[in-house]
Amino acid sequence: MSRTFTLKENLGLQFAQWENTTIISADISKQQREVLLANFKAAIRIPSVSFSQTHQNTSALREFDQLLRRVFPNVFSSSLVKHEVVGNYSHLFTVLGTDPELVPYMLLAHIDVVPANEVDGWEAPPFSAKELNGFIYGRGTIDNKQCVMGILQAVEYLLERGYVPRRGFYIGLGHDEEVYGYNGAVNIAKVLKSGGVKLQYILDEGLAVMDGIITGLNGPAALIGVSEKGQATVKLSASTRLGHSSMPPKENSIGILAAAITRLEESPMPRLFGYGPEQSTFEHLAHKFQFPLRFMMSNLWLFNPLLSRVMERRPDMNAFVRTTTAVTMFNSGVKVNVLPSHAEAFVNLRIHPAQTLQEVLDLIKSTISDNRVKLELVDGFDSLPISSYDEQSFGYQIIKKTLLDMFPQVTVAPSICIGNTDSRHYMDLTQDIYRFNPTWLSQIRSERNAGIHGINERMSVQNYEEIVLFYFQLIQESDIRILPPSHTGQHEL
Ligand SMILES: [Zn+2]
């Protein structure tokens, strides 16, 4: 019971004595506000869509390059900033710091978006940036042009006001994140690696502020992604002899493969809730849950089995409980009166951090347990290493302080990203990668199929201003030399 009442993880270093480096005020005039918003809308109106790895709207990407140069003149002319185009359409900015002893950090975002069709039920055309009830509608408003424009707008303001960073930093804007980042992020990381760059931390897109989304939680939660689930695409196939449908054998390739798929769907991967970073998520949030959830979240060691049974009923929560299995393609047959000689299916799995890719493959094999079904790994990787989030963790604490200074009402907790981001291509440059930006997801999630990659993707005018200010503050906060010593000197977890 005492755990239930003593875990107030949110405060941490917040009351410690921080060196004050946020000297430049973020006062934005009414006129600047209008410009800031116009810049964001202009970015949304450019349809920088990634259709596939080989098909991107490259003229939109060129147009986007022109937009950045036009609306951020200080960024592109300052002697403190070096700009490079990488992989034809991605951007790398190097901002020099005055103290070469301080290890630089990096901010990431991506320019490309997934396709969007107005006929799917958008209230405003997806590349219109139309403003409705205080929201700007459009593909990319929350994934991820709010960060592309937010970061550069913040740097533009800082430079305009005479800011000179003490700690250097990089900005990487990828152009093909939605199709794996092999041209953008991979090449930016290569440039940095060849220059021998090491990074203090990386902040990329990923998680957000969840307001009213987590059942039973009082108040909003800012979830900072400290890892990402792994992924695997597996091809299953079955082959039988070709023949005429008038003399069919007892089973053919379609039936064999369908039975295998059914077995996979009927036996989900094991429950692993509480064995990965999601354990910390709920422990950090525990004190904000209503009873009896608060008691259960504070004592996960006891309630894990019960909680995972409740969580797995909701697809979005099930993703935290286990490696998920999704059959995404099934192909077979050529003619109505010909027995198919071959059937194949593709299965996409998102791997829980407590399991390895190999373990997942072994489990699929034993679940199917039919030697006639061939299993091939198309591609895949383990879940990503867990970044630090204790009181010595520079990046995590800077992000947390910036957040709590702006939004004292949020509870900050480490968590895991279900999807993957560009940042996984930067793993050789730092151990500490955080996936977060202060986009408030609330109203958006209450509609089915809305938001990220869905219909009516939108960002409130106020929230976009907050995102600019967040980066404006974060860049200045990152100038501290070292973190302050812990205020309480005690750390429960
Ligand atoms: Zn994204």
From TrEMBL:
Belongs to the peptidase M20A family. The gene is LOC113575469. CDD domains: M20_yscS. GO terms for biological process: adaptive thermogenesis; amide biosynthetic process; amide catabolic process; amino acid metabolic process; lipid metabolic process; proteolysis. This is Peptidase M20 dimerisation domain-containing protein. One of its GO terms (molecular function) is aminoacylase activity. It catalyses: N-(9Z-octadecenoyl)-L-tryptophan + H2O = L-tryptophan + (9Z)-octadecenoate; (5Z,8Z,11Z,14Z)-eicosatetraenoate + L-phenylalanine = N-(5Z,8Z,11Z,14Z-eicosatetraenoyl)-L-phenylalanine + H2O; an N-acyl-aromatic L-alpha-amino acid + H2O = an aromatic L-alpha-amino acid + a carboxylate; N-(5Z,8Z,11Z,14Z-eicosatetraenoyl)-L-serine + H2O = (5Z,8Z,11Z,14Z)-eicosatetraenoate + L-serine. It is found in: Secreted.
